[in-house]
Amino acid sequence: MSEPYKVYVVVDRTFGERLAALPEGVPVWIVDTGTNAPVARRLWKERKPRSHLTGITTFKADSSPSPEATLLSQLDTIELHHGPYSANPPYTQLEVFGTALSDEIRTELCQYGFNAFQPTAEGFRCSRPMPTEEL
Question: pLDDT tens digits, residue range 5-40?
Fold first, then answer.
């Protein structure tokens, strides 16, 4: 059996060089900041994505929202790019760096079918079952 399809989301504005430690070939969405963007640009040159579903994607966020709000604002876009409408099979695991699992985040992720949650030292990870019906 192949590895589950996982997506990393980084809302830590100072994640920086830790980005290079995330596994190559796994999609990463990272907030575009003065610390994170230079590392992402360097890795774009060093690593070639295996497909349009892998690699590092940077996204803009206002300077005022909390990491929690930043994550919540990106979930629809991540689902669009890696969910059942764009990927076969769709992603079933999400690992977040830079914000803890709040009730609001859990509620929103449950709307996408995520039902297992685990806190980590730098955020949380969650998973959902593989969809059973065709779209």
Answer: 999 999 999 999 999 999 998 999 999 999 999 999
Give the SS3 label for residue 13.
coil
Q: Which amino acid is at 73?
A: S
Residue type, 45: K
How many Cβ atoms from other residues are within 10 Å of residue 85's Cβ? 11
Token pair for residue 102? 């709040």
- List the beta bridge partners of residue 8: 28, 95
Asked if 55 and 27 touch (Cβ cutoff 8 Å), the reply is yes
Sign (positive/negative) of CA torsion 69, 72, 77, 82?
positive
Report pTM.
0.92
- Residues linked to residue 94 through DSSP beta bridges, in sequence order: 7, 126
The Cα–Cα gap between 100 and 8 comes to 14
